[in-house]
Design goal:
Number of helices: 10
Bound molecules: iron/sulfur cluster
Number of domains: 3
Shape: flat
Strand content: 15-25%
Structural class: alpha/beta
Radius of gyration: 21 Å
Helix content: 40-55%
CATH class of the largest domain: Alpha Beta
Length: 288
């Protein structure tokens, strides 16, 4: 069995920066709080917890120095921390900060802002707080018909996207708005999908078109992992696993070419473990 591993599999720049930053800080001070999971991967969060990191879901539960993860947070979190004199160690990915700055700039210029992405995703809960009252999060093209009526009250519209939004969906929505938005409305599109996401999605598509079976490794709560699964599933039989423990090797029966890709929150060790197991499986088959 031939195994093709995606070159872009595993931690992205922003997640690595936050995980490394938290690990380094834990060497100097504990306890340390983190607002939300630093990375959607149980093994990594467990190892950080073992070193003294306390995960909280609400800034009000912080009793000291607190880490902000790569997804970023709403403006109200900075205000609360400032009022309560909580030190924040901010590992918001610079690419997310860039979106916050675009939102602030266009909000101040009077644009209605459409943020493409999942309504409950922490990154978007943060980003929408910088967009002002005239803004909406849109997950799917089907939501646009209702929004078009509302947009007739505005002369300028900005469209931005969650860093891990599907590139394919972004262009579908862009085409739809270009065709259906009132011609008098000025519309600015900023493709804020992270390059790392774009590269990973494109590579997943290419590999999945070339293999009999695909394994996507990533956390169950990881939105970028779910999108990789969706992309690969369109082209080949695909499973999504969090670690090698979820792997049912019977799926590999008869597979000649296997593709492996991993989400942005999957550490290299998890990928290596899966590769080791599928490689050994091949040996067992040959020994029969
Ligand atoms: S996916 Fe991109 S924007 Fe999101 S944390 Fe990683 S590098 Fe930053």
């Amino acid at each position: 069995m031939e195994i093709i591993l995606g070159k872009s599999a595993g931690f992205c720049y922003g997640v690595k920066r936050a995980v490394d930053g938290a690990s380094q800080m834990l060497e100097k001070k504990t306890p340390l709080y983190a607002l939300g999971e630093i990375v959607h991967n149980k093994e990594v969060t467990k190892s950080l917890e073992d070193k003294g990191l306390i995960f909280i879901d609400d800034i009000k539960d912080s009793k000291g120095d607190t880490i902000i993860r790569a997804h970023g947070v709403a403006n109200s979190i900075y205000e609360y921390a400032n009022a309560k004199q909580i030190n924040l160690y901010d590992f918001t990915c610079p690419r997310v900060l860039k979106i916050h700055n675009i939102a602030l700039e266009y909000r101040d210029k009077g644009y209605y802002i459409i943020l493409l992405g999942s309504k409950n995703h922490p990154e978007n809960i943060g980003t929408i707080s910088y967009c002002g009252l005239n803004s909406s999060i849109v997950e799917d093209i089907t939501e646009l018909d209702n929004l078009l009526l509302k947009l007739n009250n505005f002369s300028k519209v900005l469209v931005i996207a969650q860093t891990t939004f599907s590139l394919k969906k972004y262009f579908l929505i862009k085409n739809y708005l270009e065709k259906n938005l009132n011609a008098d409305i000025e519309v600015v599109f900023k493709n804020t999908i992270c390059k790392a996401t774009e590269v990973r999605q494109k590579e997943t598509e290419e590999i999945s078109k070339d293999v009999d079976f695909m394994i996507i490794i990533g956390g169950r709560n990881s939105s970028n992992t779910k999108k990789l699964y969706e992309i690969a599933s369109e082209n080949t039989n695909t499973i999504c696993i969090e670690t090698y423990r979820d792997l049912d090797l019977s799926y590999l029966d008869g597979v000649e070419k296997l593709g492996i890709m991993a989400g942005a929150s999957t550490p290299k060790e998890s990928i290596d473990e899966v590769i080791k197991i599928v490689s050994n499986y091949k040996e067992k088959v040959y020994k029969k």
